């Protein structure tokens, strides 16, 4: 049968549904990965009006370099992102801490590109590439802008490698 039809019935059906060329193993392997399975929620989260002293306690005890800033209500609507590197001067310089004593999370956050839960891996990789490797993690939100977690470029690439190995 292979001489008449190089694709199996399952591959042919998948090809017709997704318009994806199964002979392009890179794109095919990437398309098999699902964003929702690579989201990590083990990152500190701050409300917009969290004060600097409270943030510093969390940041000092955290191994993470990125923090989500959400609204002040119980809804986890993403407002922005803070990065540890932007806070190092405040963290290690007591004089700076005193100067910024009244600073809140909303003052330190930045708006950042996000991924939505409906994005596929191709758009996720494209977004990482567009940022020129400046960001190693991106926030993921649902359709309403609710923060679901962060996804790292490393986790995508690790999963991609294991999928390629599995296919070989």
Bin the strand percentage: 15-25%
Shape: elongated
The count of strands amounts to 6
Helix fraction, binned, reads 25-40%
SSE pattern: HHEHEEHHHEHEEH
- What is the residue-averaged pLDDT? 84
Major sheet attributes: 3 strands, mixed
Outline the structure in words.
The protein is 40% helix and 16% strand. The protein is α/β, with parallel strands linked by helices. It has a three-stranded mixed β-sheet with strand order 1-2-3. It has a three-stranded mixed β-sheet with strand order 4-5-6. Helix 2 crosses helix 8. The mean pLDDT is 84.
Short description:
The protein is α/β, with parallel strands linked by helices. 40% of the residues lie in helices and 16% in strands. The strands form two sheets. A three-stranded mixed sheet has the order 1-2-3.
Topology:
Layout: H1 9-18, H2 25-31, E1 45-47, H3 52-61, E2 66-70, E3 78-83, H4 88-92, H5 94-99, H6 105-108, E4 115-116, H7 121-130, E5 137-141, E6 147-152, H8 153-167
Helix pairs in contact: 2-8
Which features does this protein show?
single chain; 168 residues; alpha/beta; three-stranded mixed beta sheet; 8 helices; 6 strands; 40% helix; elongated
